[in-house]
């Protein structure tokens, strides 16, 4: 993951780089953080080799953080933009530039914790934005964002993938165990010998009926009694990551 940090205050820039480095290394190993003292320098570097995420100060001379974000969105350059500013009144103005988050600079020690919360959410979101290629004997060759896969189920020698917005499932010749291992890094969990679900689509778990209720498609799936405790624990941990 390529990460940029931009702030015209060198002391703040050094602090942000150090803090973000310590946070990111808790969760991933493959990342780099580059620092910029001006918005124009950042934008030039981004045009040459796009960053995955940009942590951007708003109040900079001549070329502000909003100017940088406007140029990025106008040129359809992809990236997560996280505004960092001591001016909390600017949060509503920032919505015009489709930021991922707005972090308020603070002197009370909460900035580190706020940054960690944002990084956790960013990594969850970026993982779900990865894609999976379905290319099977049924001639349905499609590239599907992983975030759109609601759940998958075993069907003899095949696995059926139920995808948000698709009327019929995608079928792969595989085992559910193989697919479970491939998708567990994206917060998919086994709830039954026949079902694996994406936790982001879980509405609630009915402990009395041993069923898991899904959002969007409003369907219930059975959960195995032997897996019930583990399912509840994993779902609880997942919800805590989002806070």
Explain this structure.
With 243 residues, the protein is an alpha/beta fold. The protein has helices spanning 10-27, 39-48, 65-74, 91-94, 111-128, 176-183, 228-242, and strands at residues 2-6, 32-36, 53-57, 80-85, 101-104, 131-134, 142-145, 149-155, 158-163, 170-173, 188-192, 195-198, 202-206, 211-214, 220-222. The strands form 4 sheets. A 5-stranded parallel β-sheet has the order 2-1-3-4-5. Strands 10-9-8-12-11 form a 5-stranded antiparallel β-sheet. A 3-stranded antiparallel β-sheet has the order 13-14-15, with no helix packed on it. Helix 1 (10-27) packs across helix 5 and helix 2 (39-48) packs parallel to helix 3 (65-74). The longest helix has 18 residues, at 10-27. The chain is elongated and about 65 Å long.
Topology record:
Elements: E1 2-6, H1 10-27, E2 32-36, H2 39-48, E3 53-57, H3 65-74, E4 80-85, H4 91-94, E5 101-104, H5 111-128, E6 131-134, E7 142-145, E8 149-155, E9 158-163, E10 170-173, H6 176-183, E11 188-192, E12 195-198, E13 202-206, E14 211-214, E15 220-222, H7 228-242
Parallel strand pairs: 1-2, 1-3, 3-4, 4-5
Antiparallel strand pairs: 6-7, 8-9, 8-12, 9-10, 11-12, 13-14, 14-15
Helix pairs in contact: 1-5, 2-3
Question: Which key phrases capture this entry?
Answer:
elongated; 243 residues; alpha/beta; five-stranded antiparallel beta sheet
What's this model, at a glance?
With 243 residues, the chain is of the alpha/beta class. The chain has 7 helices and 15 strands. 34% of the residues lie in helices and 29% in strands.
User: Which structural category fits the helices and strands?
Assistant: alpha/beta
Quaternary state of the chains: single chain
Strand content: 25-35%
Strand arrangement, major sheet: 2-1-3-4-5
In one word, what is the shape?
A: elongated
Q: What is the H-and-E element order?
A: EHEHEHEHEHEEEEEHEEEEEH
Measure the end-to-end span: 23 Å
Average pLDDT number: 90
**Number of helices, counting only DSSP H or I runs of 4 residues or more:** 7
- Rg over CA atoms: 21 Å
Helix content: 25-40%
Query: Which consecutive residue ranges, at least 5 long each, have pLDDT under 50?
Result: none
Total beta-strand segments: 15
Main β sheet profile: 5 strands, parallel
């Amino acid at each position: 993951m390529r990460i940029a940090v931009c702030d015209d205050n060198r002391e703040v820039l050094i602090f942000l780089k150090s803090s973000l480095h310590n946070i990111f290394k808790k969760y991933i190993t493959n990342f780099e953080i580059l620092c910029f003292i001006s918005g124009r320098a950042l934008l030039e570097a981004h045009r040459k080799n796009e960053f995955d995420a940009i942590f951007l100060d708003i109040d900079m001379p001549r070329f502000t953080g909003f100017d940088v974000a406007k140029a990025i969105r106008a040129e359809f350059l992809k990236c997560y933009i996280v505004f960092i500013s001591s001016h909390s009144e600017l949060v509503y103005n920032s919505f015009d530039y489709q930021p991922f988050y707005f972090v308020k600079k603070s002197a009370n020690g909460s900035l580190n914790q706020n940054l960690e919360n944002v990084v956790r959410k960013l990594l969850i979101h970026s993982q779900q934005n990865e894609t999976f290629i379905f290319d099977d004997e049924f001639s349905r060759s499609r590239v599907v964002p992983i975030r759109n896969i609601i759940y998958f189920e075993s069907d003899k020698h095949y696995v059926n993938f139920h995808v948000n917005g698709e009327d019929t499932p995608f079928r792969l010749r595989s085992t559910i165990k193989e697919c479970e291992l491939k998708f567990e890094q994206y917060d998919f969990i086994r709830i039954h010998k026949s079902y694996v679900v994406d936790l982001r689509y879980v509405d609630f778990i009915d402990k009395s009926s041993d069923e898991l209720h899904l959002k969007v498609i409003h369907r219930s799936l059975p959960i195995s009694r032997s897996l019930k405790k583990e399912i509840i624990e994993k779902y609880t941990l997942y919800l805590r990551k989002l806070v």
